[in-house]
Write a structure and sequence with these properties.
single chain; alpha+beta; five-stranded mixed β-sheet; four-stranded mixed β-sheet; 2 helices; 9 strands
């Protein structure tokens, strides 16, 4: 196969993977409530999935010492005393993946008390995987043509 044609074919496929129009969300925003248990340097659940535009209510229940939640990217936080429940409501208006972590120094393993808020699908991950696969294909084809 002509090397220029191979390069053009891979470049075209890369553009097709990297820049297709994003799908329009088909799910209407809704109110969603999650109870998040915090204890022993972990959250349960540790991953929360919502759709963009959802009104999210987090009910933080601390089971041992004072814990809190700070959500990166949203700059919101709240705390709960042991045995108490605190509630925070916000609109998930920023799509993407955001860490949430304890904002109260709760013990030696405090830095590892981390969870994840996923708002919508992770389109960039899939695009990155597609581009990586095309790069591997391009390198493989170019090496075969050298031989």
């Amino acid at each position: 196969m002509n090397p220029r044609f191979s390069l053009l074919l891979i470049l075209t496929a890369g553009l097709a993977v990297a820049f297709p129009p994003l799908p329009v969300p088909t799910v209407a925003p809704q109110a969603r409530t999650f109870q998040v248990d915090a204890g022993q340097f972990a959250y349960s659940p540790s991953k929360i999935f919502v759709n963009p535009g959802d009104t999210v209510t987090l009910e933080l229940v601390s089971t041992d010492v004072v814990h809190g939640i700070y959500i990166d990217g949203y700059d919101i936080s709240f705390e709960a005393d042991p045995g108490q429940t605190q509630t925070l409501t916000f609109i998930a208006d920023k799509p993407g993946s955001f860490r949430f972590r304890c904002n109260v120094t709760c013990g030696a393993m405090h830095p590892f008390m981390i969870g994840k808020l996923m708002v919508g699908t992770n389109d960039w991950l899939y695009r990155s995987v597609g581009l990586a696969a095309l790069a591997v294909l391009g390198v493989t084809i170019s090496r075969k043509q050298e031989v």
